[in-house]
Amino acid sequence: xxxxxxxxxxxxxxxxxxxxxxxxxxxxxxxxxxxxxxxxxxxxxxxxxxxxxxxxxxxxxxxxxxxxxxxxxxxxxxxxxxxxxxxxxxxxxxxxxxxxxxxxxxxxxxxxxxxxxxxxxxxxxxxxxxxxxxxxxxxxxxxxxxxxxxxxxxxxxxxxxxxxxxxxxxxxxxxxxxxxxxxxxxxxxxxxxxxxxxxxxxxxxxxxxxxxxxxxxxxxxxxxxxxxxxxxxxxxxxxxxxx
Length: 243
Ligand SMILES: [Zn+2]
Known about the structure:
Blueprint: H1 3-17, E1 32-33, E2 37-42, H2 51-68, E3 75-81, E4 97-102, E5 112-121, E6 126-135, E7 141-142, E8 154-155, H3 156-167, E9 183-184, H4 196-206, H5 212-216, E10 231-240
Helix pairs in contact: 2-3
Bound molecules: zinc ion.
């Protein structure tokens, strides 16, 4: 008589422990990165940070997710680019992931820190590239912990870690301590480090996927996906907590 009760309790505990969310594409399918991805950082920098200050934070954000993927994700820094944020609706075929700052006007929600715009192959739901755009209009960016005071600034790596989580296919976690939790605040650096919930999300997405090396094999011919393959998935946004 007691066994069903115990089973029910275990099920309940298991359900509450999972807070991560796999972000479906517009068709409702699970999306994931299908092979090695290169990324570039815009040499334009931000109002407060130069290219050389930005790159280490970008590298660390990508490296954190790669390390958690057990060889399923492989990211490579392909150097600087002259590209900035994409135009509205623009797709960039054959271009690596671009990390840039929007300085002129922020066309997304005014308090959002950043957006990640994904491009996928709708035939297999693989994310083929992305643009990560940081809000340099209403936010000031810094490398916190570099010895200088940065009152009111947002930590670049903290936000980039969250955005790369969107790039690999995760949505917003309901766990307040997770990197993929939707809210942040100035001075926060805890999102630099993936939590167990974030790693569980990566496991759920990639545990059954081929390694990055296997997925990349045979993809060296051609100039990238045809234009008709690419769809704009919309925006994955990190919002500032309103207090
Ligand atoms: Zn987000």
